């Protein structure tokens, strides 16, 4: 099993109608972008993923029930596929004869781990994406965040790198106090003056 602890054999989660619609729109957008690159369209601007997701949400809202029906039917089929696959799925712990060693319970008073730049970015942008795509499931929002992050330049990522460094300092200080026995659990682990990165 991979280091992440996820079983690669576990069935993919079921998708709702909006997820299927969004996937179709994303694939269409990728084809348009690929065609633009092939034609060397220099005036073609790179797609703004946040704007794209907002446009998809508006497009979905504007669809009539009849137009949404194919996605609803596909989602129902995917639900059945998922249920069938899960019925035949055996988790790794049960599959093997050896039982996993019980993990040591987490100390609730231990300092909260330091956030990496992507985590800081996700905290900042997740509310915007949720507002723009109210029907998108959490998994879909996470995919959008990952795609946004991958398309950002180092300069655009810099504010989040700085936030992560600040949080690392916070974590190091709290861990030192924790080891000494002087640590007091704060109301919030992350600095309250976290600012949004410039658009």
From TrEMBL:
This is High mobility group-T protein. The keyword DNA-binding applies. GO terms for biological process: regulation of transcription by RNA polymerase II. Residues 97-113 have a biased composition (Basic residues). Pfam families: HMG_box, HMG_box_2. InterPro entries: HMG_box_dom, HMG_box_dom_sf, HMGB. SUPFAM superfamilies: HMG-box. Its main location: nucleus. Residues 64-82, 123-137 have a biased composition (Basic and acidic residues). The keyword Zinc does not apply. GO terms for molecular function: DNA binding. Residues 64-137 are annotated as: Disordered. Keywords: DNA-binding, Nucleus. SMART domains: HMG. Residues 11-90, 111-179 form the HMG box domain. Residues 11-90, 111-179 bind DNA. Belongs to the HMGB family. One of its GO terms (cellular component) is nucleus. It is found in: Nucleus.
């Amino acid at each position: 099993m991979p280091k992440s602890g996820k079983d690669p054999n576990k069935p993919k989660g079921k998708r709702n109608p909006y997820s299927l619609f969004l996937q179709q729109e994303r694939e269409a957008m990728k084809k348009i972008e690929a065609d633009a690159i092939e034609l060397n369209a220099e005036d073609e601007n790179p797609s703004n993923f946040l704007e794209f997701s907002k446009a998809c949400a508006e497009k979905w809202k504007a669809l009539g029930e009849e137009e949404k029906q194919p996605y609803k039917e596909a989602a129902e089929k995917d639900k059945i596929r998922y249920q069938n696959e899960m019925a035949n799925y055996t988790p790794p712990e049960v599959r093997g004869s050896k039982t996993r060693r019980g993990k040591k319970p987490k100390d609730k008073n231990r300092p909260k781990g330091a956030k990496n730049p992507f985590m800081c970015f996700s905290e900042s942008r997740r509310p915007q994406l949720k507002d723009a795509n109210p029907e998108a499931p959490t998994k879909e929002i996470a995919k959008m965040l990952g795609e946004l992050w991958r398309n950002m330049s180092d300069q655009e990522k810099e504010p989040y790198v700085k936030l992560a460094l600040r949080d690392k300092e916070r974590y190091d200080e709290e861990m030192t106090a924790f080891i000494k026995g002087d640590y007091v659990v704060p109301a919030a682990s992350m600095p309250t003056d976290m600012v949004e990165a410039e658009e």
